[in-house]
Every structure is written in C-alpha cells, then in structure tokens.
Amino acid sequence: MATLKSVADRRDRGQAVIELALTLPLLLLVVLGIFDFGFMFQKYEVVTNAAREGARVGVLPDYTTTDAVNRALNYLDSGGLGGAGITTLAPGACGGAVVANNRCAVATPTTTTLPPVGLEAAKVVNQITVVVEFDYDFTFVGPLMNLFGGSLGTTRLRSVSTMRVEPN
User: Fold this and answer.
1) Is residue 1 part of a domain?
2) What is the pLDDT of residues 64-93, one digit of tens each?
3) Strand ranges (E), 40-102
C-alpha cells in the first residue's frame, strides 16, 4: 500500500533544525556551567585544606605565623593554585595583603577567654586563625557571558580555619 504525503509534512521539514538552533546554545551553557562549577568547587576544597594545613602548622610548638602562612601557600602550590602569569588579588584581600598568583594567606594569633563553667575558673585559650583566599576566573561560562555583554567576573574563594595553640 502506498503512503500519501500531506502538505503538513512538507512544511515541517526545517522544524527540527530550527529547534536545535534555538536550544543548543542554552544546553551548552548549562553543561559548561556544570563543568565550571565543578572546577570551582575543586579549587574551593584546595583553599579550605590550605587554611586547615596552615592552622595545623601554626598551633604546633616552635612554629610561627610565618610558618603557617608558608605552609598554606605551599599547599596551594601543590594543589595547582599557583604558578606564573596569573594576576594578583585585588587590594583588600586577606586584610589588605596582596600576594602574587591570585591568592593570599594571613595567619593571626588570637586570645579568647572562655567563661567559667560550674566550679571551674575562666580559661584563657590561645588560638591561631588562618585566612586563605583565591580569586577564581570562570573558564567556560565567563568568556561565553562576555560574548552576550554580561560578565561573571571572578569569584573570591575564602576559607578561615581557627585552632587552639598546643602548650609546650
């Protein structure tokens, strides 16, 4: 039996191409956004671990805040967040310290007085706080947004870690 072609079939020939042309850019933007978010989250984990490592070194006996900062920056280097050719952080990052390679770390010793509990007297606790920041530039979505006149700019990834100083 022969099939009959109707007039409607001939009019719908280019419909799939037009739908693809309209939806493909949106689909690519969503997929590339997922990739960018994954990369940003991976770098945030490195920043968090760097702050934790810096604080861990800073609370040990015979170590200084400079040792804590150096440990945090070395951790960033080993995590792939260093290298030449990267711009510096904007002023105001990490309390005004500007460090090359898009990142900075600051260690600050602090003293906290804990309130008395029951019959115990108030306790003075020495702590160190390490702040690590990194400016993340979007790899895929940022340049695409620039094509459409928008801008994502950079996202500052920031992590703070506070630990008690161990007694000698």
Assistant:
1) no
2) 888 998 899 899 889 988 754 344 444 455
3) none
